[in-house]
Design goal:
The chain is built from 25 helices and 21 strands. Strands 2, 3, 4, 5, 6, 18 and 19 form a seven-stranded mixed beta sheet that branches. The chain has a five-stranded parallel beta sheet with strand order 8-17-9-10-13, covered by helices on one side. Strands 14-15-16 form a three-stranded antiparallel beta sheet, with no helix packed on it. The structure holds NADPH dihydro-nicotinamide-adenine-dinucleotide phosphate (NDP). NADPH dihydro-nicotinamide-adenine-dinucleotide phosphate binds near residues 212, 254, 255 and 448.
């Protein structure tokens, strides 16, 4: 049975759903390119692009230290939210011998590296900034800026004594299981060869920047950098803006994802001329930031943060909807529209296909609001047209900003549309060539993103060898294999903390980390009591994979995941790789979301740990 006519009536809706889906298909066809994920340049420490990875303008010259060959109980690779939370939980549980190793010169991870002007978190700080109650801090605003987030990372490090054994500016080059000693050997670029009983890989979902493989990229003679390695010596100013050294510079920004949306207005305000090269526009909704109300903050009762994190996740999963969150959180906008539509039909009569149609109508309603916002803000109608996004909300990360669109009203800002499959023609000694025109510039800023859904080896970037010298990446050749997203057969006492897995469970990475690190710490405790090491059996991995594939999705994961085959390419869809050729990405997440996952993982660890094999030394 089709959806009731009044629901799909263009007049009542204010848009024609058929025309929108046709336009989406046309945009997808225009943007698809045969080289998919291969279009990007791999940045490795060994490659000529290593500076995009290893250069640290924030810290100055590296100091030398003696290589370490000691042993620790728990070594965590990565000092961002995941590593810090793991470290904090272990310390809280009385496991003191914890070492965090990080490539940056301090804690912070994403927020250490991403200091580009305007960098800010899209999830409310009250649920996104971890361990607020434990550290006694309260965020200044609803959406925190990068400097506050970085300071908070340092606060967590201080509060839990995580600086004591931390190793910074240290790049892990090899992680190898020593079967006889039942210890991990962790080697680094400093020459360390440390031993650890437990290793946590907490390198996060977006720690490896990537560059577009544009012909001639090496020929450019001017200044260039990636947004996650911002060079304030060159631009002047800081994360709050004020890029005064750009006043006589012409700047090209390549990319218009979530990062560019936040930094473009600052570059536009500072530079003599700004060229924004756009392949796929982002959807840019209102930010809705506000200072924290001190009376509200004072009124909160102990345990508030956990409760709020849970409410966020339950709303997301449609388990228990928090009406106030729905109203204030832009990420939930489509959910609001879908709910309104649901009230108008008898859901029990709808087929799966009609439900999908209903989700799409909700998504179109949000998209139309956002497209109207572009028209209302950008004065030049041609530029406004180019800035409108034509794809489902689940194809590309939605963004929220109040200055980006306005920047295109400045006379010194040009939007260069490179939206067909070919994109930018090439880069020359002097600048960027697009649509046959050379744009001479002094500086190219690559807002080209990260290895978020690329092959595991590229994303994690660390060689990991388990029992019998097997590579983790061989074990994962056909897709991620794990028990509960955290433990892997053949890799005893190795934990995947957050990263690949938690990123896919909730829009609030910290919320799922909160639960996962707590339960993981309990698991570490059990392993220490019952043996030297533990690993899941191959059957336990199979069982979890079955659970991942068969578990029913939530409304929100249906909204976000349902349109993959009709998306313009991007990292969400592995750059448009056809489903049949993709590894099984269902194994990297869990469709029911963070709340249900946490319950399952907790009851496994608190229960009989079926399928976990304990090993004695
Ligand atoms: P993205 O991968 O989202 O964006 C990269 C951009 O580079 C895209 O616009 C892409 O275009 C463009 N690009 C790549 N190759 C070319 C090319 N050859 N020619 C022209 N353009 C090109 O990276 P971001 O750094 O913006 O964001 C990464 C993720 O980090 C976000 O999705 C989000 O998850 C997270 N993030 C979160 C923030 C927050 O919470 N506030 C802020 C910033 C980032 P195309 O789309 O056509 O491929």
């Amino acid at each position: 049975m089709p959806l009731p006519q009044e629901l799909v009536d263009p007049e009542a809706l204010g848009f024609d759903p058929g025309k929108i889906t046709d336009r989406y298909s046309a945009e997808r066809a225009r943007r698809m390119r045969a080289d998919g994920q291969a279009q990007f340049i791999d940045i490795t420490p060994e490659s000529q692009y290593a500076r995009y990875l290893l250069d640290d303008h924030y810290a100055g010259a590296a100091t030398t230290r003696e290589p370490l060959t000691d042993e620790v109980e728990f070594l965590v690779i990565g000092g961002g939210w995941a590593g810090l939370m793991m470290g904090a939980r272990l310390k809280q549980a009385g496991i003191e011998d914890v070492r965090i190793v990080d490539a940056g010169s301090d804690f912070g991870g994403t927020w250490y590296w991403n200091r580009y002007p305007g960098a800010q978190c899209d999830v409310q700080s009250y649920v996104y900034m971890p361990l607020l109650e434990e550290t006694g801090y309260f965020p200044k605003e609803r959406y925190a800026y990068a400097s506050e987030l970085l300071e908070h990372a340092e606060r967590i490090g201080d509060h839990f004594g995580l600086y004591e054994k931390a190793l910074f500016r240290t790049w892990v080059t090899d992680v190898r299981w020593d079967e006889k000693a039942m210890r991990w050997i962790v080697s680094t670029n400093v020459g360390d060869r440390m031993r650890a009983r437990f290793v946590g890989i907490a390198t996060g979902p977006a720690s490896r920047p990537r560059l577009p493989g544009i012909p001639g990229i090496d020929d450019f003679r001017g200044k260039s950098f990636h947004t996650s390695r911002w060079d304030y010596d060159y631009t002047g100013g800081g994360p709050e803006g004020g890029l005064d050294r750009l006043a006589d510079k012409r700047v090209a920004i390549i990319g218009t994802g979530a990062t560019a949306i936040q930094c473009v207005a600052h570059v536009a305000a500072g530079a003599r001329q700004t060229y924004v090269f756009q392949r796929t526009p982002s959807s840019v909704a209102p930010r809705g930031n506000a200072p924290t109300d001190p009376d509200w903050a004072k009124s909160l009762k102990p345990g508030w943060q956990r409760k709020m994190m849970a409410a966020f996740d339950k709303t997301l999963a449609g388990i228990e909807v928090d009406e106030q969150l729905l109203e204030t959180e832009g990420m939930f906008r489509t959910f609001v529209h879908v709910r309104k539509l649901m009230e108008k039909v008898d859901l029990s009569t709808l087929s799966a296909e009609e439900m999908q149609q209903l989700f799409q109508l909700g998504d179109h309603t949000t998209a139309e609001e956002i497209r109207r916002r572009v028209e209302d803000t950008v004065q030049d109608p041609e530029v406004a047209e180019i800035l409108k996004h034509w794809y489902y909300g689940g194809c590309k990360r939605p963004t929220f900003n109040d200055d980006y669109l306005e920047a295109f009203n400045r006379p010194n800002v040009s939007l260069i549309d490179v939206s067909d499959a070919k994109g930018i023609d090439r880069i020359t000694e002097r600048g960027v060539v697009a649509n046959g025109v050379e744009y001479e510039v002094d500086c190219i800023i690559y807002a080209s993103g990260f290895e978020i859904t690329s092959d595991f080896e590229k994303r994690l970037g660390i060689p990991v060898f388990g029992q019998g010298g097997q590579s983790l990446y061989d074990h994962w050749r056909d897709g991620m294999r794990s028990a509960y997203g955290v433990m892997v057969h053949g890799f005893p006492n190795l934990f995947m903390v957050g990263g690949l897995f938690c990123f896919t469970l909730s829009l609030n990475y910290s919320g799922t980390l909160e639960d996962q690190t707590e339960v993981l710490t309990r698991l570490v405790h059990v392993i220490r009591q019952r043996g030297d090491a533990a690993q899941p059996t191959i059957e336990a991995e199979e069982e979890w994979i079955r659970e991942q594939i068969e578990a029913p999705p939530t409304i929100l994961s249906s909204i976000f995941g349902g349109a993959a085959e009709s998306c313009t390419p991007g990292y969400y869809t592995l750059e448009g790789t056809p489903m049949a050729e993709r590894r099984d990405t269902r194994r990297e997440g869990y469709a029911p979301g963070g709340t249900v996952y946490a319950e399952k993982f907790r009851s496994w660890v608190n229960g009989n740990l079926a399928g976990l094999e304990f090993m004695a030394g």
